[in-house]
Amino acid sequence: MRKRIGYVLGSMSLGLALVLAGCGASTGTTDTSTGAEQTTSTTATSAGNTDPQEVVDLTISAAASLTDAMKEIEANFETANPNIELNFNFGASGALQQQIEQGAPADIFVSAATKNMNALVEENLIASGDQKNLLQNSLVAIVPADGTNTVTSETDLTSDSIKTVAIGIPESVPAGTYAKEALTNAKLWDQLESKLVQGKDVRQVLQYVETGNADAGFVYKTDALTSDQVKIAFEVDKNNYTPANYPVGIIEGTKHRTEAEQFYTYLQTPEVLDIFTKYGFSISE
Question: The whole model's pTM is what?
Fold first, then answer.
């Protein structure tokens, strides 16, 4: 009987407290027998402070040859950091550099050539302390997987059976710059120039060879490994072109400095470097 009475009294006290709260009563009085008003007030305050975390959009301007690796990295990073959404702008490093110079929104730049990063550092668009070499790639010559032409060196590209050779635009596509440099050092540039078909980035060069619109092409090893429609004819001698380094840097004018630094650091972690290695990149020392 005592338990029944206690339950009824407690319920009445709780009901009174809720009525007072609903009427906006906040006199500071508390039912010391139940503490009901204090509990209700605390819950409301806590609920009022639980705002959904704002999602920050980061724009990453990255060399086209990084596309596949970055897509895997994107999924892993966003899972671990649900408050950050990565938006990638893939393209030729020279074109991306020009976009940043012209004020296009970007928070991180990952270039396929040191010269493009250095240009932005010299223009104070990236601080020298906010960039570093991250990766290295290799230049290879590719031919269609079902092709019949025998290509084992640059000299074989001069054969009459090779009608077209695809390269990236040397002025804006680092892989094209390296290809021109290698062919010039092999004293074959002038001889092959009439056969050349230029692509806006290394992925377009890959597509030219995949579709048979070019009999051969120069791409990065990492690009060649993504396609079963081409095969590597030969790897270009690294002594014949500038090292294909991939520096990463934080744009000085980023509006999301904290999050940009977070992704910049994440790209240098062992788990991410393992992903790059899986896609055929070498890690810079």
Answer: 0.77
Measured distance CA(283)–CA(268) in Å, rounded: 10
- The residue among 76, 96, 57 whose CA lies nearest residue 266 is 76
Q: Are 264 and 252 in contact (CB under 8 A)?
A: no
* Beta-strand pair 230-235/139-144: antiparallel
Q: What's the token pair of residue 163?
A: 């009608």
Question: Would you call 97 helix, strand, or coil by DSSP?
Answer: helix
* Tokens standing for residue 40: 């209700």
DSSP secondary structure, 232-246, as one string:
EEEEPPGGGS--EEE
For residue 257, the Cα-to-chain-centroid distance in whole angstroms is 16
**258-278, pLDDT tens digit by residue?**
999 999 999 999 999 999 999
Band the pLDDT of 284: cuts 50, 70, 90.
confident
Q: Nearest to residue 156, comparing CAs of 171, 172, 175, 143?
A: 143
162, 191 Cβ separation under 8 angstroms: no
Task: For the beta carbon of residue 57, count every other beta carbon within 10 angstroms.
Answer: 13
